[in-house]
Write a structure and sequence with these properties.
Layout (H helix, E strand, L loop, with lengths): L3 E5 L5 H9 L4 E4 L12 H13 L3 E6 L5 H5 L4 H18 L3 E5 L10 E5 L5 E6 L16 H22 L2 E5 L18 H10 L5 E6 H6 L4 H9 L4 E6 L2 E4 L2 E4 L9 H10 L5 E4 L17 H23 L10
Parallel strand pairs: 1-2, 1-12, 2-3, 3-4, 4-7, 7-8, 8-9, 9-12
Antiparallel strand pairs: 5-6, 6-11, 10-11
């Protein structure tokens, strides 16, 4: 079995779907707008999205993001209603044949960067982060939360959600906190180290409980990426992967092109092969290249085209080495 090259398309149109097919992508990672007025991923829109992707010869296998769940993360009144909406969405995903949801438990704020105009190779714009610039920031309107409070909220959430996911046949792929630091603006973040994922998986054991292995976030933690892939992949707990490279650590880093950061990307790709990962894997947080519109930092189309080509090359190289075909070409590895 081979991992499945996947892509986020924004916008998702007939043209971008054709482009994805032309460059060898097999799976699409979808998203769907929700709000407090429309808090559920409803079945009919999911089916229409699934069929639109299928008509292009591709498979919609992952939904990223989640219906509103801020109250659930913060432990506020109204969290039970939010969790119920999340559970309804899981049931609808299962009926639509979409088997993975990538979600996070970052309370108060999502993924965080302090700049989206840092210059990388050849002047490409990249996102970056410096903790010192927010270290002493005041708490947000949500106040403060300590780690054990967030753990209690996560346990409460999983107790209600995991049985629904098991019944629906939908894999819950937990994304790390990005960046993996705690606290941020007064609110603790709990998924900032590998041991936290072990704790989460042990606290709510189940076939459908696993992780999104975001290489960038784990690299920011300072772990050795191939070992981390084996740690979770040998247990079959990597449901989805974000292929990302950067320079630095959680306190100060900048995104890079996939071929120039601190992570040995060949070794990472080889580790996925060794653990027999056969799920979707997508490029994540690419530089904004010449000619890209300046409207979606990290997700511009030309940067992702470059990343997909690089990933396909790595996949072929790993196949050559591990299967003994053309291994001489990669003797130096």
């Amino acid at each position: 079995m081979k991992m499945r090259l996947s892509l986020v398309l924004n916008p998702l149109t007939d043209s971008t779907l054709r482009l994805a097919k032309q460059i060898g992508v097999t799976d699409i990672v979808g998203g769907m707008h929700t709000s407090e007025k429309e808090p559920v991923w409803e079945l009919l829109p999911l089916l229409r999205l699934k069929n639109e992707v299928a008509d292009a010869g591709l498979d919609l296998t992952v939904m990223e993001g989640a219906p509103p769940m801020e109250k659930a993360k913060l432990g506020l009144p109204g969290r039970d209603e939010e969790i119920d909406h999340f559970c309804q969405s899981l049931s609808n995903l299962g009926q639509a044949g979409i088997r993975i949801v990538c979600y996070n438990f970052m309370a108060g704020l999502g993924w965080l960067r302090t700049s989206s105009s840092t210059r990388g190779r050849g002047g490409a714009r990249v996102t970056s982060f410096e903790y010192d610039s927010i270290r002493h920031a005041r708490p947000t309107k949500f106040g403060t939360l300590i780690e054990e409070q967030v753990w209690e909220n996560y346990a409460y959430f999983m107790e209600k959600v995991l049985p629904v996911a098991e019944e629906a046949g939908v894999n819950l792929a937990l994304h790390p906190d990005d960046p993996p630091l705690s606290p941020v603006f007064g609110i603790a973040r709990i998924f900032t180290r590998m041991e936290a994922f072990d704790r989460a998986l042990e606290m709510a054991p189940g076939k459908r409980h696993g992780i999104t292995f975001c290489q960038g976030c784990f690299a920011e933690m300072g772990v050795e990426i191939p070992k981390a892939i084996h740690h979770f992949g040998d247990k079959g707990k990597i449901f989805f992967a974000h292929f990302r490279n950067l320079r630095g650590d959680a306190y100060k880093f900048e995104e890079t092109f996939h071929d120039e950061g601190d992570t040995d990307m060949f070794a990472a790709m080889r580790a996925y092969h060794e653990v027999a990962f056969d799920g979707p894997i997508r490029p994540d947080h690419v530089p904004e290249m010449e000619g890209d519109p300046d409207d979606r930092p990290g997700y511009t189309i030309q940067g992702r085209l470059y990343a997909v080509g690089y990933m396909k090359g790595l996949m072929d190289a790993v196949d050559a080495v591990t299967c003994g075909n053309g291994a001489a070409a990669f003797k130096g590895r």
